[in-house]
């Protein structure tokens, strides 16, 4: 609620300033702004209107793309400084502070808002000062520093009332409702319930105005919080539900559902608490509201703990993923903040240099006279100090050489440490990615179960209709249509689950990590068939020619079969994906036949495996990047960018070989894998617990 009130207040102020509308304009119209703002921004020259457009567009991106929002508002702030537009600077500083509150950097947020308040005070702009103090109060509320929050919120209300009096305008219902609601929450959190209710009832009075009705849900569920503190559970439940019926905002819905879930948990109604917690998580996931996903998933994990550990683990993983995403946003925020502070430092340095040059011009004549005297003195002392200067320079040179050597050594240590940290972070990310696949299975299974239950109910309804003396043919047809639709959904989500399990089995098998004699021809052929069957499982219409040329002299080689299998599976999967994409993009009637070739060869110094396909190919500009971690040419959601990176490490670091790529865009791609021919020990007997990888596609349907 606190964040929502902060953003609503900023939204109203920016929107009114930009469009020049009266204060009663409704902030609910803002969702259509980003597209129109982007269009206006393309043709807007570098003037004060562009400053306001950049700031307003940044505000609209604050929740879903905070990094983009911060870059836009920085551009607006830099342009306002170049144009000497202090009001635009105050706007930009305020919005930067709001984005920092969203990202959790409260010290930085408060500093930016204080700068906005100071600049607004120098401009005698009471309204802008009020907004800055209101936003600082919200930042202190989030930090649970209610004393400071009350101080700034009272100051915000005082300044805004003074602004209204000087302007000779009637009270602004929306901004008064927001500030009274903030004061009510501050007093409620401080334990002053009577004062809290008094301000909340004032907010309710102002929400009678249609322009301020957006604040009514916030006010109601804060009143519900007070009733909960007073152990009036029934009234708290009524107020929460009332607030939930009034709002359409995803952030508010997430907060209200979470409060309902917590209240029912305290009442011992676990089933109701689970329902509301799931609704809270659903709304947060639909709107990508990470700060809402985290508490909702944590509550669900707590509710399922000890009762259904599978579900508890699932929601715990959702919470961990949300926390990791917030941490990623924190890293982006830190980088952006460092860059912005450096820009500010450079601007301040430039201003200081300019002032210094002005002072030099002012005292030029005096300096010229002093220089004459100084030159005479230096000429007299030059001979006497020459020897001492030479000795001092020699000493300093020795010290600089020692410092340089120390710096080079420190730099090498830093490089080594950085490489180790990157390796650890990369492997940790891969482990989380692989382990996280499992919880995705639950989603399609839930759909299958739900549609199965609904289908059973439809069959009961159909049987009941059929037993009537005069069955309604239209009703039966509708029931059959619904039943068919449900069965299609069950089939669709069953295939989703099947795909997830195949991917998990193919990519997350535990590697023994020890080399053992392995027949590479047999291993290569197994994974070729496995990858082809996987590609056809995703697209039954896909057909591809398979050409295999195996060197019979290859024999057995000491490798880690699980690791080499993972590399081969990744190369084959990429080849089938490339040919399938080219087949789909090919014009109708064009003679194109997908083909994948694999060839093995044993040489004097190396064992070679080549995988060739006639797919889309790889552009020359990105071929050198394909082995970099997290780099992918696939569309978002279809690739992680880790497959080729891990394959490269398995071959180069784990087996002392090489992995190279050669491609021509639009014609072909060929990966060549070279391994040193290590001596092979006698092959051990095959364990009865192992089975060929080629049987996986047969066993998976049986498992289901």
Q: Your description of this structure?
A:
By secondary structure, the chain is α+β, with helices and mostly antiparallel strands. It folds into five domains: 1-25 and 32-170, Alpha Horseshoe (Serine Threonine Protein Phosphatase 5, Tetratricopeptide repeat); 264-333; 408-432; 442-507; 516-681 and 689-703, Histidine kinase-like ATPase, C-terminal domain (Heat Shock Protein 90), CATH 3.30.565.10. The chain is 71% helix and 6% strand. It has a five-stranded mixed beta sheet with strand order 2-4-5-7-6. Helix 5 packs parallel to helix 7 and helix 8 (146-167) runs antiparallel to helix 9.
* Helix percent band: over 70%
CATH topology of the largest domain: Heat Shock Protein 90
Low-confidence stretches: 1-32, 680-704
Classified in CATH, the superfamily of the largest domain is Histidine kinase-like ATPase, C-terminal domain
- CATH class identity of the largest domain: Alpha Beta
Residue-averaged pLDDT: 79
What is the strand content? 5-15%
- CATH architecture heading of the largest domain: 2-Layer Sandwich
Tell me the radius of gyration: 34 Å
Question: How does the overall form come out from the CA principal axes?
Answer: flat
Q: Give, in order, the helices and strands.
A: HHHHHHHHHHHHHHHHHHHEHEEHEEHEEH
Which structural class do you get from the secondary structure elements?
Answer: alpha+beta
Number of domains: 5
Say how many strands there are: 7
Per DSSP, the total helix count is: 23
């Amino acid at each position: 609620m606190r964040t929502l009130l902060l953003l609503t207040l900023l939204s109203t102020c920016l929107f009114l300033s930009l469009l020049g509308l009266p204060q009663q304009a409704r902030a609910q119209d803002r969702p259509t702004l980003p597209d129109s703002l982007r269009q206006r921004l393309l043709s807007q020259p570098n003037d004060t209107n562009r400053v306001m457009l950049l700031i307003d567009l940044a505000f609209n991106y604050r929740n879903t793309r905070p990094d983009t929002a911060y870059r836009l508002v920085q551009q607006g702030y830099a342009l306002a400084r170049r144009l000497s537009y202090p009001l635009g600077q105050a706007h930009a500083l305020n919005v930067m502070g709001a984005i920092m509150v969203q990202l959790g950097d409260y010290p930085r947020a408060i500093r930016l808002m204080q700068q906005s308040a100071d600049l607004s005070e120098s401009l005698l702009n009471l309204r802008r000062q009020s907004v800055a103090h209101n936003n600082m109060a919200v930042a202190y509320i989030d930090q649970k520093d209610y004393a400071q929050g009350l101080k700034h919120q009272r100051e915000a209300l005082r300044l805004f009332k003074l602004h209204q009096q000087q302007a000779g305008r009637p009270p602004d219902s929306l901004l008064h409702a927001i500030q009274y609601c903030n004061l009510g929450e501050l007093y409620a959190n401080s334990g002053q319930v009577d004062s809290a209710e008094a301000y909340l009832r004032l907010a309710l009075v102002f929400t009678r105005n249609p322009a301020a009705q957006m604040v009514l849900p916030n006010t109601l569920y804060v009143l519900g919080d007070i009733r909960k503190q007073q152990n009036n559970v029934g009234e708290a439940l009524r107020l929460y539900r009332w607030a939930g019926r009034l709002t359409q905002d995803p952030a508010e819905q997430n907060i209200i559902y979470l409060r309902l879930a917590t209240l029912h948990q305290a009442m011992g109604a676990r089933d109701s608490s689970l329902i509301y917690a799931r609704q809270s998580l659903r709304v947060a996931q639909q709107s990508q509201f990470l700060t809402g996903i985290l508490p909702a998933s944590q509550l669900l994990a707590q509710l399922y703990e000890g009762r259904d550990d599978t579900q508890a683990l699932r929601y715990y993983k959702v919470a961990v993923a949300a926390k990791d995403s917030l941490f990623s946003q924190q890293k982006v925020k830190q980088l952006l903040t460092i860059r912005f502070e450096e820009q500010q430092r450079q601007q301040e340095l430039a201003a200081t240099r300019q002032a210094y040059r002005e002072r030099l011009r002012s005292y030029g004549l005096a300096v010229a006279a002093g220089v004459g005297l100084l030159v005479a003195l230096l000429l007299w002392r030059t001979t006497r100090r020459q020897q001492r200067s030479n000795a001092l320079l020699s000493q300093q040179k020795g010290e600089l050489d020692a410092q340089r050597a120390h710096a080079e050594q420190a730099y090498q240590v830093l490089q080594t440490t950085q490489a180790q940290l990157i390796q650890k972070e990369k492997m940790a990310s891969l482990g989380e990615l692989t382990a996280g696949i499992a919880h995705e299975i639950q989603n399609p299974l839930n759909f299958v179960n739900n549609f199965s239950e609904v289908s059973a109910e439809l069959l009961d309804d159909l049987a009941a209709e059929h037993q009537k003396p005069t069955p309604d043919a239209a009703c039966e047809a509708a029931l059959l249509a619904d039943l068919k639709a449900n069965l299609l959904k069950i089939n669709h989500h069953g295939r989703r689950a099947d795909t997830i399990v195949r991917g998990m089995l193919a990519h997350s098998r535990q590697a023994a990590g020890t080399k053992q004699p392995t027949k590479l021809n047999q291993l290569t052929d197994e994974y070729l068939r496995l990858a082809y069957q996987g590609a056809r499982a995703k697209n039954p219409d896909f057909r591809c020619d398979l050409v295999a040329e195996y060197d019979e002299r290859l024999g057995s080689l000491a490798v880690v079969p699980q690791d080499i299998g993972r590399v081969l599976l990744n190369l084959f999967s990429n080849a089938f994906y490339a040919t399938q994409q080219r087949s789909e993009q090919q014009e109708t009637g064009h003679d194109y036949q997908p083909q994948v070739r694999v060839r093995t060869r044993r040489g004097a110094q190396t064992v070679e495996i080549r995988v060739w396909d006639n797919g889309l190919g790889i552009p020359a500009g990105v071929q050198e990047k394909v082995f970099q971690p997290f780099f992918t040419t696939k569309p978002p959601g279809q690739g992680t960018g880790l497959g080729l990176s891990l394959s490269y490490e398995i071959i180069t670091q784990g087996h002392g070989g090489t992995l190279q790529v050669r491609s021509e865009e639009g014609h072909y791609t060929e990966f060549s894998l070279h391994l040193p021919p290590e001596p092979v020990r006698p092959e051990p007997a095959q364990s009865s617990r192992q089975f060929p990888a080629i049987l996986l596609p047969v066993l998976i349907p049986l498992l289901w």
